[in-house]
Specification:
Length: 1000
């Protein structure tokens, strides 16, 4: 009967916790069922990350190192564990924002169980139960249960990890097992008498947690094995029973004590392992886990050293090593981006958002002032009243006072340490301290339990009932002014109403783009930035549509507004409120004005938003890439025609049009290597490849009042004048120029395409067909049955130091998937004359592969060249969200280097393409070859050293830097790299000299 009475409350509490979890789950799912809102910035970004990992799990290659590297690179800024856990849910329930948030049901179960176990361990099961109830009802937690953010999973995992750490640190036998500790003598005395002081072996001996039950079953197996050993190794046993166990040495101690000792030892190791696993997994949810567990770990480490508990210290080191083993693969792959992204997320964001200075008082009380918002006034004030009542009637001689004091101390270490470290972070946000709330709920639950018995039960039920009512009023809009005011007073800033109005048009916007350009992968320029309309959520809905549309914010730099307008074909604008664009107000207003007024852009469609503003979708009439199906199938890729001026000027971007045809598989996987090579004989008249049928169709499109601005040379046998093609068609997204002199502004002003000024006799125009925008996931059945034609309207840049003369086009096809290549017939031959006095014509933007090759030629200049490269890469990456241009460049350059292995121009560009792809191994091989050919350039060695450092190989970096310093010992950037290499090798003196001394 006694045993049953003791077990019954445990069963009731577990059942009640399950009911509480179901209550939270049903409440959340009902909210999602009625809510028609769209995810905001971060929420949509994380949802896109979950889709990215869902796709990679559709083709798992566990034994491929390349697959694993790609796997970890998919989430370079934040760890991917939440995304990974979401994958099976999206496989079962489908892909969408509501389906992805099902993962929070798992984290809610983890959170409730951890809080209950912590409260039970540190106080009693009643405290653990009420703490679990509070953790469900805190506004700061239930609000973020309804959003796909990493903060709620982080809160659950930090609480679980802290729970395991608590159970390990305060596990039974912890004091006795410290070798050389002050308890050793007392343990020996107890050992001789055979008596066991349970109070010393249990931090809270009257409670058994859910976790303890699980571990007890594991340790039972060890106990059984140990009894067998004791039986066959105790004195007086028959030698025949022990002859096979002579290698085992067991001290002559009572069997019960031995059994208990090994049971406790095993349990300690199990808890250490549990902490190591959960700590590593928590870091794989978000790196800020360290903010909350650093102080408790430091506290434990100092105490273990003071008490000389080496056995526990070994367990702690073991658990930390286990944690590192879990998150190391991701951190090893992304450590550099993690650091740079962390700087942007803290320093840059804090400056932009106007967060308080660390030297001000506001920085340190910021999160303290948020407590009523996180907890609500009833759940804060009433438990604090209970704590005050507890301390008033406190009797130091009362039972369990010492245990409670240790519990308060331990919780304070976690809460105060986490609070101070979060306050030390200069970027403040409402959700950054959420992991403190579950532990705080234990203290508040303890306060709720301190009221006198006569009124305590009523106070607790009243408090919880009021909290449930406030939760419902915060989540569901009730149009009663009195209730709104009461709710705002008792639970300020916690409203997160379900949007019950009409749906936002995000899916319709994506569907319209896909319907208009069904064969293309499109990038949508998003100009407003509100919680409802922003680049992240439009990008997410595009990702749901088989990644056919990407959303990117452009128009953030006033100097790049025209380039942004020329580089994208789709834009969305919004009337009325533009959102968080204060920092870029001038640039944003300029690009909105340009898109809405330019004749090239037409309003494709408009939708009314719930706030009665309009969302407008604009499309460029003259797309850089067009795809049309053909009636007959076609095997190999064919060049149908080229349209360009018969005379071109060196160093100036020229407009050019290519038309390709072939099967979809060949076109979508195809790279074209185009070489314009100088002829050494008298050239016939230039004849472009324009068919009669295409002349008629183009002539219907080409009328423009500004054609007379551009005198037209003959284009060959058809006498099709260049001015017949309007400026807006030739120069997509550029305003008509007032005069020929203005056209000079479109001259390439970056730098020449050649490293040397020696005249060259060829230039290249390599890239993917369709510039990599042909979408692979559309119309799978039809692609094999029909052929397709692809029309490209792009810019081409002859180098500034190219020799005048007539150049002949040569074309080669390269399949990027199979490596197959074959020549493409150019019939009739295409010839173009390079003339320094040729007319300058407006032209579209250069293709991105050409731009990358241009950046590569800046690398030998060192830091001066890199400044331009960084700025340009940031801009171009917005136009190509998957950075496919880097892969195109790598494959085409690698192919050309097979014929020209010593071409420095190509090698520098290849190294840049590999670095942008984070291909350390390939970049090291390329840069090693560069240092052999450009051996007197210190920056070549510096680049090689940088990649070695990125690859966590400071030894290789030191070898490269030695050569760089011999050439230029005073270059500050090279010396800084040398200091970093020394620091990574543990040479603190040299690191100080290189990194600090040179600044002074």
């Amino acid at each position: 009967m006694i045993a049953q009475e003791k077990k019954q409350p445990k069963i009731n509490h577990i059942l009640t916790l399950t009911i509480l979890w179901l209550f939270a789950a049903v409440s959340d799912r009902l909210w999602f069922a009625f809510d028609n809102s769209v995810p905001a910035w971060d929420q949509a970004d994380y949802l896109t990350g979950s889709l990215t990992y869902w796709r990679v799990f559709q083709n798992v290659q566990l034994f491929s190192g390349e697959w694993w590297q790609h796997f970890w690179q998919l989430s370079p800024k934040v760890p991917p564990l939440t995304y990974i856990i979401t994958v099976p849910l999206q496989n079962i329930f489908g892909r969408g924002a509501d389906e992805a948030t099902l993962v929070h049901l798992l984290f809610s179960a983890i959170l409730v169980t951890s809080v209950y176990s912590l409260g039970s361990k540190l106080f009693d099961r009643q405290v653990g139960f009420w703490a679990a109830v509070l953790s469900i009802l805190f506004p700061g937690l239930y609000r973020y249960r309804l959003q796909f953010l990493l903060d709620y999973p982080l809160t659950a995992m930090v609480t679980l990890s802290f729970c395991c750490l608590t159970f390990w640190y305060f596990s039974t036998g912890s004091r006795e097992q410290g070798v050389g500790s002050r308890e050793e003598g007392r343990g020996n005395r107890e050992h001789k008498t055979g008596k066991i002081d349970k109070e010393k072996l249990n931090f809270n001996s009257e409670t058994t947690s859910i976790f303890d039950k699980f571990l007890s079953k594991i340790s039972t197996l060890a106990n059984t094995a140990y009894f067998i050993l004791v039986r066959y190794t105790s004195p007086g046993q028959d030698a025949r029973t022990t002859k096979n166990l002579r290698f085992i040495f067991v001290p002559h101690i009572p069997a019960i004590w031995c059994n208990l000792l090994i049971s406790l030892t095993l349990k300690n190791w199990l808890w250490a392992t549990a902490f190591g696993l959960t700590f590593g997994l928590a870091i794989l949810v978000k790196q800020t886990t360290i903010f909350f567990l650093f102080t408790p770990l430091l506290w434990i480490g100092i105490n273990l050293l003071k008490k000389r508990q080496w056995y526990k210290l070994i367990q702690l080191i073991y658990s930390l090593c286990l944690s590192v083993a879990i998150f190391y693969p991701w951190a090893r792959t992304n450590w550099l981006l993690m650091l740079t992204a962390g700087k942007r997320a803290t320093v840059d964001s804090a400056i932009a958002e106007g967060d308080p200075n660390l030297l001000s008082l506001d920085a340190w009380i910021y999160y303290g002032k948020l407590l009523p918002y996180h907890i609500s006034l009833p759940l804060l004030i009433i438990p604090i009243g209970g704590l005050i009542f507890y301390f008033i009637r406190l009797n130091k001689k009362q039972e369990n006072f010492s245990t409670q004091l240790h519990s308060f101390q331990w919780l304070s270490v976690f809460l105060i340490g986490g609070y101070l470290i979060c306050s030390l972070n200069i970027n403040k946000d409402f959700r950054y301290t959420l992991p403190l709330l579950p532990v705080l709920s234990i203290l508040l639950a303890f306060g709720l339990m301190q009221f006198p018995r006569k009124v305590g039960k009523q106070i607790r039920y009243f408090t919880i009932g009021l909290a449930i009512l406030l939760m419902l009023l915060n989540l569901w809009h009730v149009d009663v002014i009195f209730l709104k005011k009461i709710t705002a007073w008792l639970s300020p800033g916690a409203t997160y109403y379900a949007h019950l109005g009409k749906e936002f048009p995000h899916r319709k916007v994506i569907a319209e783009i896909v319907k208009t350009d069904p064969y293309l992968q499109s990038t949508l320029g998003v100009l407003p930035s509100t919680p409802e309309i922003n680049q992240h959520n439009l990008n997410y809905y595009g990702a749901l549509q088989k990644l056919q549309v990407y959303g990117r914010q452009v128009g953030t730099n006033l100097k790049q507004v025209e380039q942004d307008a020329r580089s994208l074909s789709w834009f969305v604008t919004k009337t009325n409120e533009q959102g968080s664009v204060k920092r870029i107000k001038k640039a944003q207003a300029a690009i909105v004005n340009l898109i809405e007024q330019h004749p090239n852009f037409q309003l494709q469609k408009s939708w009314q938003l719930p706030d009665n503003s309009n969302l407008n979708l604009y499309r460029n009439q003259f797309l850089p890439v067009e795809v049309h199906p053909l009636n007959k199938p076609q095997e190999k890729v064919k060049l149908d025609y080229i349209i360009l001026s018969p005379k071109i000027r060196p160093g100036t971007t020229i407009p050019i049009t290519y038309k390709w045809s072939g099967s979809w598989q060949e076109l979508q996987s195809g790279l074209v290597l185009l070489t314009y090579r100088r002829e050494n004989i008298n050239q016939p008249q230039f004849k472009p490849l324009v068919s009669e049928k295409n002349i008629d169709s183009y002539s219907k499109l080409i009328t423009h009042p500004t054609d007379s601005l551009f005198p037209v040379p003959s284009l060959g046998a058809h006498s099709l004048s260049w001015s017949a093609f309007p400026c807006d068609w030739r120069c997509r997204g550029v305003r008509p120029l007032a005069s020929v002199a203005d056209a000079g502004s479109h001259r390439c002003s970056l730098f020449p395409l050649s490293l040397s000024e020696k005249p060259i006799t060829r230039f290249i125009h390599d890239r993917a067909i369709g510039m990599g925008s042909l979408h692979p996931g559309i119309f799978q059945a039809n692609k094999s049955e029909v052929g397709f034609e692809v029309i490209e309207r792009i810019g081409m840049l002859p180098p500034s130091n190219i020799a005048p003369g007539t150049y002949l086009l040569e074309a080669t096809y390269l399949n990027r998937e199979t490596g197959e290549s074959y020549p493409i017939a150019v019939q009739p031959p295409v010839r173009v004359e390079v003339d320094p006095q040729a007319q300058i014509l407006p032209a579209p933007e250069l293709d991105l592969v050409t731009q990358l090759r241009m950046w590569g030629q800046k690398l030998p200049l060192g830091i001066k060249g890199l400044e331009t490269v960084f700025e340009e890469v940031a801009r171009v990456n917005q136009y190509d969200p998957v950075q496919d241009y880097t892969k195109q460049a790598e494959q085409t350059l690698t192919y050309r280097l097979q014929q020209e292995p010593d071409n420095l121009e190509l090698l520098y560009s290849l190294a840049l393409a590999q670095v942008l792809q984070k291909d350390a191994e390939g970049a090291i091989a390329t840069l090693t070859r560069i240092t052999e050919l450009d051996s007197q350039n210190p920056f070549a060695y510096a680049y090689l050293a940088f990649v070695y450092l990125y690859d966590l190989n400071p030894g290789g970096a030191k070898i490269a830097l030695k050569s760089a310093l011999e050439i230029d010992p005073h270059q500050p950037e090279i010396r800084s790299l040398n200091g970093i290499a020394a620091l990574m090798q543990g040479n603190l003196v040299q690191a100080w000299q290189e990194l600090i001394s040179q600044k002074s």
